[in-house]
Design brief:
Structural class: alpha/beta
Radius of gyration: 16 Å
Largest sheet: 6 strands, parallel
Oligomer: single chain
Distance between the termini: 37 Å
Shape: globular
Helix content: 25-40%
Strand order of the largest sheet: 3-2-1-4-5-6
Strand content: 15-25%
C-alpha cells in the first residue's frame, strides 16, 4: 500500500484498524498525543509520531511521503461544545494543511464521519442526495470537517465514510 498515517490509532476503531494493517505487513505511522494510552499498540510494528491534530506545529514532524491517511481521530463526547469544533473540524483542517504543505503523494485520504450528519431523515431511508441536517454539535463539527475535505477534493483524493453506530471489543463510549 505505501506509508499509512492513522490518526485516532489508540481509540476503539483505530486500534483495530492498525492491528489489521500491521497483520497485512503495511508501513503504519500512528499519530499519538503525549497523553495517549498506547496499550492497544504495544507489541505492534508501528512508528509512533507524537503530535495532536489540534496543534498544527506538532504535525510538522510527520514524514513527507505519506500515501494513505486514515483520519479516525475525533471527539465523540465533550464537556464544552467548542471542543467538538476544535478537534473534529479544526483537527481535520490542520491535517489538510499538512497534506498540502508537505505535498504528500496521497492516493487516498479516508475520513471517518458519522451518520448523525444526516440528522433525523424524513423517512427511514437515507439517500445520497439528502441534504445533511446535523442536530448536535458533534454532528455539525463532523459535517464541517467533511466540507473542508470536499473543498480540496480536486487536490486530495478523499473518501468520506459515515458509519452507523459501531460497538464491540474496546468500545468505551456506547455502552457502560
Amino acid at each position: 500500500m505505501g506509508k499509512i498515517l492513522v490518526t485516532g490509532a489508540t481509540g476503539f476503531v483505530g486500534s483495530h484498524l492498525v492491528e489489521t494493517l500491521v497483520k497485512k505487513g503495511e508501513d503504519v505511522y500512528c499519530l499519538v498525543r503525549a497523553t495517549s494510552n498506547l496499550r492497544w499498540l504495544k507489541g505492534l510494528s508501528v512508528k509512533l509520531v507524537q503530535g495532536d491534530c489540534t496543534d498544527i506545529s506538532s504535525l510538522k514532524s510527520l514524514p513527507s511521503d505519506i500515501e494513505f491517511v486514515f483520519h479516525l481521530a475525533g471527539l465523540v463526547k465533550a464537556r464544552r461544545k467548542r471542543a467538538f469544533y476544535e478537534v473534529n473540524y479544526q483537527g481535520t483542517v490542520n491535517l489538510i494543511k499538512i497534506c498540502l504543505t508537505k505535498r504528500w503523494p496521497l492516493k487516498r485520504f479516508i475520513f471517518i464521519s458519522t451518520l448523525a450528519v444526516h440528522g433525523s431523515p424524513s423517512d427511514s431511508m437515507i439517500k445520497s442526495d439528502d441534504q445533511p441536517r446535523p442536530l448536535s454539535h458533534y454532528a455539525k463539527s463532523k459535517w464541517l470537517a467533511e466540507q473542508a475535505l470536499l473543498s480540496v477534493k480536486e487536490i486530495i483524493p478523499v473518501i468520506i465514510f459515515r458509519p452507523t453506530v459501531i460497538y464491540g471489543p474496546r468500545d468505551r463510549e456506547l455502552l457502560d
